[in-house]
Design goal:
513 residues, mainly alpha, Serine Threonine Protein Phosphatase 5, Tetratricopeptide repeat, 4 domains, 28 helices, 73% helix, 0% strand
């Protein structure tokens, strides 16, 4: 009898330990994805670039809720923004191992949760974008494909999970930019989508009006993405300004008004819309939150904005950027713009010294750096009237730019076919901005004639702008012709920005059929 009681007690204890072990293991094997208040606060601090406070909140959450995997997902945002804005190669080499560690942790989560594939895809896609920044193109391509596959699976399993549309929207836009001759590669990889499809998906998230706080959470990111897409691909300047100004009116977004990321977005959008005084006021009055991660590119933007109104104090901000930024892009452009300041001051020696540094420092990856390096290679100082017209146009001072071109003797600065092509191009851009479309079409057409066989971007951009004019007028045949002309031309400068815009134009026309 005693023996039976001992056996029964042992069996009960054994069952207790088995049940306890099962509960423990199930907690680790099927961890939760809980976007609680602490995680939402950490996400807000991340977008405000207060990475230290965000890290502290994520550590607290991880300590209090061992089974919550959202802190792992959010921690990757910190690496992502640091590398994307800082472009530090040493930091990239140090942090890149975090990806595999975090993916392994997330793969221990509950596969039946909509966050399982979503979080893995999000981290994978962020690292793909970082790798593109640092030239690891092959790995990035595989990561983009994996992220796409995961998000499509998630969409099928959880069609009402709205955050899924953020990643899919971005990926569909990327796929929509692939030239037709390479579309078969995308199909082979199982990728499909269009720019308009991607924009529509992002807008679903931005316009969400329900009560799920997890779905509302992504509005600031999406607003940021859409603003740049509208200005860079869709040529919808008014919509981009509207999106950025939503941050001042939407209570959901107001908490992010001091984010360096949003300040950067606002400044860039205002700049591309010719609202230069607003750019300078915004950047000069901006004080980053205490503890915010440094974003040196804002100094570069203020330097550009001041230069666009021919203000030589631009040199102060350009030097701050050059001295503080440890990344790989815009260094050549920074030295080129500094050279232009010297040129405006009549200091040709200062110009030559700075343009020499533009040739030797930095990398020629982004369009602005390629153009700076091209000026160094040509070895010819810009004609000052054309330079002033260019800068004033970029700042939205259209009448002042036109006055310089019309009231300066052409013979005083025309030296080559390049100058002639640039002269007609600048007039076309100015008349276009002033709404004089017949004059704009006239000078854009002259630019194509004068510059299509030159290795400069003037003719290609003239064709792109003609495409936009004809598209707005409903002349899709002429628009199609000019978009294709832009893509087909052989030129060294601004290919990374002009050809995707022309591709987006062709995509819009095709969708009308």
């Amino acid at each position: 009898m005693v023996c039976n009681k001992i056996k029964t007690g042992a069996l009960r204890r054994s069952r207790f330990f088995l049940i306890s072990a099962f509960v423990f293991l199930s907690g680790s094997l099927f961890s939760q994805y809980i976007f609680n208040e602490r995680c939402r606060e950490a996400y807000q601090e991340i977008l405000n670039f207060d990475f230290q406070d965000a890290s502290n909140l994520l550590k607290q959450e991880a300590f209090l809720h061992l089974d919550n995997l959202i802190p792992i997902y959010l921690a990757n945002y910190i690496d992502f923004f640091k590398l994307l804005t800082g472009e530090d190669k040493v930091m990239f080499a140090t942090l890149k191992s975090n990806k595999a560690i975090r993916i392994n942790q997330l793969e221990e989560g509950d596969k039946h949760s909509p966050y399982y594939r979503f979080c893995i895809a999000g981290i994978t896609l962020q690292w793909a974008f970082v790798r593109l920044k640092f030239g690891e193109y092959t790995t990035a391509a595989f990561e983009i494909r994996r992220a796409y596959t995961l998000l499509k699976e998630n969409e099928k399993l959880f069609p009402d999970f709205l955050p899924n549309q953020v990643g899919l929207g971005i990926l569909h836009i990327i796929v929509g930019l692939i030239p037709d001759q390479y579309r078969w590669l995308a199909n082979l990889a199982g990728l499909d989508g269009t720019i308009q499809q991607g924009v529509s998906e992002l807008k679903q998230v931005l316009n969400y009006s329900g009560g799920n706080p997890d779905f509302t959470l992504y509005k600031p990111e999406v607003c940021f993405y859409l603003a740049f897409i509208d200005i860079n691909l869709l040529n919808d300047k008014e919509e981009s300004v509207y999106l950025i100004r939503r941050f001042d009116r939407d209570s959901t977004l107001q908490r992010f008004g001091k984010s360096p990321l949003i300040i950067y977005a606002k400044a860039s959008i205002f700049m591309k819309n010719g609202k230069n005084e607003e750019v300078i006021q915004l950047l000069h009055s901006y004080s980053p939150p205490e503890g915010a991660y440094p974003f040196a590119f804002l100094s570069y933007l203020e330097g550009l904005a001041r230069l666009d109104r021919l203000d030589t104090s631009a040199a102060i901000y350009l030097r701050i950027f050059i001295d503080q930024f440890k990344g790989i892009n815009y260094i050549k452009s920074g030295y080129q713009k500094l050279a232009w300041v010297y040129l405006l001051q009549g200091d040709t020696l200062g110009y030559r010294q700075s343009i020499e540094l533009a040739g030797k420092k930095g990398n020629a990856i982004v369009d602005e750096d390629k153009q700076a390096h091209s000026e160094y290679n040509i070895g010819i100082m810009p004609a000052i009237p054309l330079l002033k017209a260019r800068l004033l146009y970029d700042g939205g001072y259209y009448k002042e730019a036109l006055e310089i071109l019309l009231n300066t003797s052409l013979g005083s600065y025309f030296r080559s076919k390049k100058d002639l092509a640039e002269y007609t191009y600048r007039l076309g851009r100015i008349y276009h901005a002033l709404g004089n479309l017949p004059k704009a079409i006239q000078y854009y057409s002259m630019t194509i004639t004068n510059g299509r066989n030159l290795p400069y971007y003037y003719a290609a951009n003239a064709a792109l702008n003609l495409g936009w004019i004809y598209e707005e007028q409903g002349n899709d045949i002429a628009a199609d012709t000019n978009f294709r002309l832009c893509i087909s031309m052989d030129y060294d400068e601004y290919q990374n920005s002009l050809r995707p815009k022309a591709k987006a134009g062709l995509s819009r026309i095709k969708e009308k059929d």
